[in-house]
Amino acid sequence: DLTHLNIKASIMCMASKVQSFISENKEESSVEPAESLDKLCSWTDELMPSIKKLRQAIQCLMKTAKLTYSIVSLKESTKCLPLSQKVRHRRDIVFSQSLTSLVTGLMTRLWCRNPDSMFIHMLRTLGVLCHFEGLLSCYGDEMGALEDMVVGIDDLRRVLFWLEPSSASCNPQPRIEGSRLFLRVFIPAPPSVIALLPADCHNGYRFTVSSVFFNIGINEQATLAEK
């Protein structure tokens, strides 16, 4: 409760000071640049204590949240721990396979085909659309594989992709940084592809990937999947 009050008080104090600063600027529109700069510096000095107080309150709130999560994790039943571990391990395996397939497709598109200015323009403005196709049935044992595929592709939303220049022409290797909660994948691109990007993107560019999954299962003879 005290942390919540500190955050609320800091935000209210900052909002009131910003509003007063805006009203003063409207009233004194003909002030010289030197005087306006001095007022801006003084306004920043007045606002800094509230910003520091807000940061301290947020850090305290984060520590409390981490401690609460740790306590809840310790209270978890020991009977559920093996199941949770198996589910996490299975999810990591499926995610690694879907991410490997996606990175392989991107590397093939960039290195094994001629540079396409339209593709680079779409990559820079809209991102990349990656579709996965499956031949799984909703019957029998394949239902579990279908569910794994859906979760594995959905987890790709937690990955950030970066396009970076590469000097290696024989064996380019992508780089991966981060953890399972936040991954960054750096895709190397040949100089011919980097040349199609704007000058401010030659050192690296972040792009988005939208993944979709199409499944073509058994319809007329679905009972065969159970045998």
Automatic annotation (TrEMBL):
Xref: InterPro entries: INPP4 (IPR039034)
Coiled coil: none
This protein's record includes keyword Nucleotidyltransferase: no
UniProt KW keywords: Hydrolase, Lipid metabolism
One CC-aspect GO term: cytoplasm
Gene Ontology molecular function, alphabetical: phosphatidylinositol-3,4-bisphosphate 4-phosphatase activity
Protein name: Type II inositol 3,4-bisphosphate 4-phosphatase
Organism: Araneus ventricosus
Chain's gene name: Inpp4b_0
